[in-house]
Amino acid sequence: MASRKLLLLPGDGIGPESMAEVKKLIAAMNADLNAGFETEEALVGGSAYDAHGQSISEADVATAMAADAVLFGAVGGPKWDSVPYEVRPEAGLLRLRKDMELFANLRPAICYPALAASSSLKPEVVEGLDILILRELTGGVYFGEPKEIIDLGNGQKRGVDTQVYETYEIERIAAAAFELARTRGNKVCSMEKRNVMKSGVLWNEVVTATHKNGYQDVELTHMLADAGGMQLVRWPKQFDVIVTDNLFGDMLSDVAAMLTGSLGMLPSASLGAPDAATGKRKALYEPVHGSAPDIAGQGIANPIAMIASFAMCLRYSFNMVAEADRLEAAISAVLDDGLRTRDIMSNGMTEVGTTQMGDAIVAKF
Ligand code: ATP
Ligand code: MG
Question: Which InterPro entries does the protein's record reference (predicted)?
Answer without folding.
Answer: IsoCit/isopropylmalate_DH_CS, IsoPropMal-DH-like_dom, Isopropylmalate_DH
